[in-house]
Specification:
about 20% strand, 8 strands, alpha+beta, three-stranded antiparallel β-sheet, about 50% helix, 7 helices, about 280 residues
C-alpha cells in the first residue's frame, strides 16, 4: 500500500505545528506562573513596607495578585490550544457572580476587614467599644475581630458589624481625662470644697500636673450642689487612678467636715375639715 506523499507532508506539518504549539503553551504556562509568583512576592514586600498594612493584609493582597495572574495564564494557555475562552470567561463570571451573591455577607466582612487593617481605627491591645461591646482587642483578621472583656469573656464580632457602627477607642491617645462628680450640702463653702478637691487630686503621683487639675460647680441639684473635678493621667493609669481618687476625695471631704448629703424628700399631709352633712355614727 502506497502512502500519498501529500498526506504524509500534511501529517508532519500538523505534528510539528502541534509540537510547537505545545512548547509555546508550556512556555507561557511556566513563564506566567513564574511572573505570578514574582508579582505575589513583590506585592507582599511592598505591602509590608507600608505602616498601615500588617502581615494579614499583605498576605491577602499577595493572594489576590497571584491567583488573578494564574487565572489569566490559564486562559491564555487554553486560547493557545484553540479553546473558545470567551464562553469559559462568561461561565466563570456568572459563577463568580452567583458565589458573590450567596456569600455577600461574608464578602462584606472581608471588605470591612480590609478597611479595618488599612485605616487601623484600633490595634491589638487597644481597649475599645465595638457594636456595644467593650473589651481589649486580641485579634483582627479578614472576617472577625476578637475582643476580651474586663471579666475575661471572649467576644467575636463580624468585621462588617464593627465597620458599620461607631468605633470608640479608649486607648488611642497617650492621655485621658478623669471626670469625677461630688455632691455637697447647700450651706457648704464652695471655694473651700473646690480647693480641697484640687489639692487632693494634685497629691496623687499618677495625675499629670500639666494641665493642672481643676474643679468647678456643675449645677444646683434638687438636694445638693454638684461639683465636678477634672484631672489628666496617662492612659494606662486611668482605671487605677480613678478608683484611688474617688476614695481619696471622699476621705478629704470628710476630714474637712464637708457634708455629702443623702437624697431627701419632703412629704406634706393635708387635713380637710369635717363636713356638717357627713353621716354620723349611730349611738
Amino acid at each position: 500500500m502506497q502512502i500519498d506523499p501529500t498526506l504524509l507532508t500534511d501529517f508532519w506539518r500538523l505534528l510539528i505545528a502541534g509540537a510547537i504549539n505545545v512548547l509555546i503553551a508550556a512556555a507561557i504556562l511556566v513563564f506566567g506562573m513564574w511572573v505570578a509568583v514574582w508579582a505575589s512576592n513583590m506585592m507582599r514586600n511592598l505591602s509590608r513596607q507600608h505602616p498601615r498594612v500588617d502581615d494579614t493584609l499583605a498576605a491577602f493582597f499577595s493572594w489576590m495578585v497571584r491567583y488573578g495572574l494564574t487565572a489569566f495564564v490559564i486562559v491564555a494557555v487554553l486560547n493557545r490550544f484553540g479553546v473558545a475562552t470567551t464562553s469559559i470567561v462568561a461561565v466563570l463570571g456568572a459563577s463568580a457572580l452567583a458565589i458573590g451573591l450567596a456569600l455577600q455577607g461574608t464578602l462584606s466582612n472581608v471588605a470591612a476587614g480590609v478597611m479595618l487593617m488599612l485605616f487601623r481605627p484600633y490595634r491589638l491591645g487597644d481597649y475599645v467599644e465595638l457594636a456595644g461591646q467593650k473589651g481589649q482587642v486580641q485579634d483582627v483578621n479578614l472576617f472577625t475581630t476578637d475582643i476580651t472583656t474586663l471579666d475575661n469573656v471572649k467576644v467575636v464580632l463580624p468585621n462588617g458589624l464593627c465597620w458599620g457602627s461607631a468605633m470608640v477607642n479608649y486607648t488611642a491617645h497617650p492621655r485621658r481625662r478623669i471626670d469625677l462628680e461630688f455632691a455637697v450640702a447647700y450651706d457648704t463653702d464652695l471655694d473651700r470644697a473646690i480647693a480641697v478637691l484640687c489639692e487632693t487630686i494634685a497629691m496623687d503621683r499618677s495625675v499629670l500636673q500639666e494641665p493642672a487639675p481643676k474643679a468647678y460647680v456643675k449645677e444646683l441639684g434638687d438636694f445638693a450642689v454638684l461639683l465636678t473635678s477634672r484631672a489628666w493621667v496617662r492612659t494606662e493609669d486611668y482605671m487605677t487612678t480613678r478608683f484611688a481618687l474617688i476614695k481619696a476625695c471622699k476621705e478629704a471631704l470628710d476630714a474637712n467636715s464637708i457634708n455629702i448629703p443623702f437624697p431627701t424628700s419632703t412629704n406634706y399631709e393635708m387635713h380637710l375639715p369635717a363636713r356638717d352633712d357627713a353621716p354620723r355614727p349611730a349611738a
